[in-house]
Write a structure and sequence with these properties.
The complex is a heterodimer. By secondary structure, chain A is mainly beta. Chain A is about 5% helix and about 40% strand. Chain B folds into two domains: about 10-115 and about 215-235, Thiolase/Chalcone synthase (Peroxisomal Thiolase, Chain A, domain 1, 3-Layer(aba) Sandwich); about 140-210 and about 240-390, Thiolase/Chalcone synthase (Peroxisomal Thiolase, Chain A, domain 1, 3-Layer(aba) Sandwich), CATH 3.40.47. The chains are: A mainly beta, B alpha/beta. The interface of A and B includes residues 40, 42, 45, 48 and 118 of A.
Chain lengths: ~130, ~400
């Protein structure tokens, strides 16, 4: 289950995403929702990718979701699972599945966010079986 | 305005090299340009429109026009990854129809083997300013595991199997055995594909395309110029292009932008999938072909696995011969961008110049399709339909 871990590179942080990464450091996964059209979106942007409004606000998520798809990358020095997880709030996001048996991961599996440290940057939202 | 019948593909060239240790990237571009112009029976001085994409060195079109000494009145450096060159043929036809140029040259070249590039197995980082980087790169997205996630979802949702995907590689290998330039000429079986090492679940090594150096070029021209040339005339009937992305998080890995580019090209051509005798389908991975064939309407969504099985893509055996040069899976994937060679083999088929063992009989209509980027999440799709003028 918990052999050697892959070193996760630090995400570049800019003024647009600073709030997201501050929340990540505090253990909260944020997404954006548009006040004009009501659509949530991810990855977060100041301008809504659905209607173009600039009235987007940060929303705390429950951190719960289900695996939409995944792949275990066997060729890596330390094999790891990349995945798309669909959040309870709607958007689907790229992530890693961690703290899991790599051979037991399934589409539809319920998962919960678990932030993983990175190489010199804020932690990133990964997911573990719920 | 339509491009139907307003432009002709008169020259194509595929560089014979698969490993270019001693040739520079700029020289490769110039060599394929010479090859395609010679094939057309034109010279460099005839070129007044130039098209290239992100593989061109330096400032792209500017650097290559300088290097080759081109006198241009039209330039287009549209970059949609490996699909760029299929887009370029459509754009060249538009420019020619609008009178903006009369002889359009499209080039592609690259040296990923000579440079030792970890093409599919290292995450690509397009720089901190790319808006997706912070939210994707930390998770290790490689080309292969992103396409693998599309395959995994297709299997889950439609029951597609690894053996069905393997049939795509089997068909490509059946064709590649007749291509003396193909990197991989050995015929493989379904068992050999599914028992090759797993790279990223569920894609095996033999579900992946080759990595090769080289390149290719295409010359597109006006009806007036084409009529004065000695080569068989291949007429552009329709072209469609699309970009598919993550739609703000409404991700659906089961379809590509071919659901838009395909119908646009067919509508312009005034044809249906049943009219097509030969297809060149971008084959970065087996799954790329399967989903694209569904999206273009050659079978229903979810039925791609059944459609490609049992040799249905093998020339002389199945209903829809594909990639008769061996495609990216066996022959060539120069610069990690397979769109240009898709057009080249489609033109060979329409001219009756494919290898006799894979030449499709009465090949009057052919389709070439390019896919560039991350399948279903951020990619370009381009569909081109051409006919042999009788």
């Amino acid at each position: 289950m918990s052999g050697p871990q892959r070193t996760i590179p630090a995400p570049p942080v800019n003024t647009e995403t600073k709030r997201f990464w501050e929340a990540a450091a505090a253990g909260t996964l944020l997404i954006k929702r548009c006040e004009a059209c009501g659509e949530p979106h991810y990855y977060p942007r100041p301008i809504c990718p659905f209607c173009g409004s600039d009235r987007t606000t940060w929303v705390e998520t429950s951190g719960r979701g289900t695996i939409y798809s995944y792949s275990v990358f066997r060729r890596a020095p330390v094999p790891y699972a990349i995945a798309y997880v669909t959040l309870e709030e709607g958007p689907t996001m790229m992530t890693n599945i961690v703290d899991a048996d790599l051979d037991g991961i399934r589409i539809g599996q319920r998962v919960r966010v678990r932030f993983t440290p990175t190489d010199g940057g804020p932690p990133v939202p990964t997911f573990a079986p719920a | 305005m339509t491009i139907k019948g307003k432009a002709y593909v008169v020259g194509v060239f595929e560089h014979p090299t698969r490993k270019a240790d001693d040739v520079s990237l700029a020289q490769l571009h110039a060599e394929v340009a010479r090859g395609a112009l010679a094939d057309a029976g034109l010279s460099k001085g005839d070129v007044d429109g130039y098209f290239c994409a992100g593989d061109a060195p330096g400032l792209g079109g500017l650097s290559m026009a300088d290097y080759m000494g081109l006198k241009l009145r039209h330039i287009d450096t549209t970059e949609t990854g490996g699909s760029s060159y299929v887009v370029h043929v459509g754009h060249a036809a538009q420019a020619i129809a609008a009178g903006k140029c009369s002889v359009a040259l499209i080039t592609l070249a690259g040296r990923p083997r000579a440079e030792g590039m970890a093409t599919g197995t290292a995450p690509r980082n397009y720089g901190a300013a790319a808006p997706d980087v912070a939210f994707e790169f930390p998770f290790g997205p490689t080309v292969v595991n992103q396409y693998a996630m599309a395959a995994m979802r297709h299997m889950h949702q439609f029951g597609t199997t690894s053996a069905q995907l393997a049939w795509i590689k089997v068909a490509a290998s059946q064709h590649a055995q007749h291509n003396p330039h193909a990197l991989l000429r050995d015929v493989v079986t379904v068992d050999e594909v599914v028992s090759s090492p797993m790279v990223a679940d569920p894609l095996h090594r033999l579900d992946c395309c080759v990595i090769t150096d080289g390149g290719g070029a295409i010359v597109v021209t006006s009806p007036e110029v084409a009529k004065a040339l000695a080569r068989p005339r291949v007429r552009v009937l329709g072209a469609g292009e699309a970009v598919k992305h993550q739609a703000g998080g409404k991700i659906d890995l089961t379809y590509t932008g071919a659901v838009w580019s395909g119908p646009a090209a067919f509508a312009e051509a005034g044809l249906r999938p049943a009219d097509v005798k030969y297809v060149s389908i971008y084959d970065s991975f087996t799954i790329t072909v399967l989903i694209t064939l569904e999206d273009l309407g050659f079978c229903d969504k979810g039925q791609g696995g059944k459609f490609v099985a049992d040799g249905n893509l093998i020339s002389g055996v199945g209903r829809l011969p594909f990639n008769t040069d061996g495609g990216g899976l066996c022959n060539n994937h120069p610069a990690n961008r397979g769109g240009l060679t898709k057009v080249v083999e489609a033109v060979r088929q329409l001219r009756g110049e494919a290898h006799p063992r894979v030449q499709v009989k009465n090949c009057d209509v052919a389709l070439a399709h390019g896919t560039g980027g991350s399948l279903a999440t951020r990619h370009g799709s381009a569909t081109l339909i051409m006919e042999r003028e009788s």
